[in-house]
Amino acid sequence: MAYDYDEKAKIGMARYYKNHKEERLKAAKRYYENNKEKVHKYTREYLAERKERSLLYAARKRARAKNLKIDLQEVDIIIPPFCPLS
């Protein structure tokens, strides 16, 4: 069976990550500890730019916690530019 380059790379990366899990977790923790403000700023900006996605993930998490089925998609969430009630 012939693999193309992308499949070989994917398999190799998966193997590497599996074999070096502890090292990766320690490195990620070190980065976070050394760059807390940068990480928090990035997270705030990321979530602000993707409000619909954030709302969807939160709704899915609440539904999962209550064992409810949810079939919302990101396109179902519409945030108006201003409050329609005021």
Tally of strands:
0
Helical percentage: 55-70%
Structural class: mainly alpha
Bin the strand percentage: under 5%
Summarize the main sheet: none
What is the compact description of this entry?
With 86 residues, this protein is mostly helical. Helix content is 67%, strand content 0%.
Explain the overall architecture.
There is one protein chain. The chain has 86 residues and is mainly alpha-helical. It contains 4 helices and no strands. The chain has helices at 5-19, 21-34, 36-49, 51-65. The termini are far apart. 0% of the residues are buried.
Q: Which terms summarize this structure?
A:
single chain, 86 residues, mainly alpha, 67% helix
Per-chain topology:
Layout (H helix, E strand, L loop, with lengths): L4 H15 L1 H14 L1 H14 L1 H15 L21
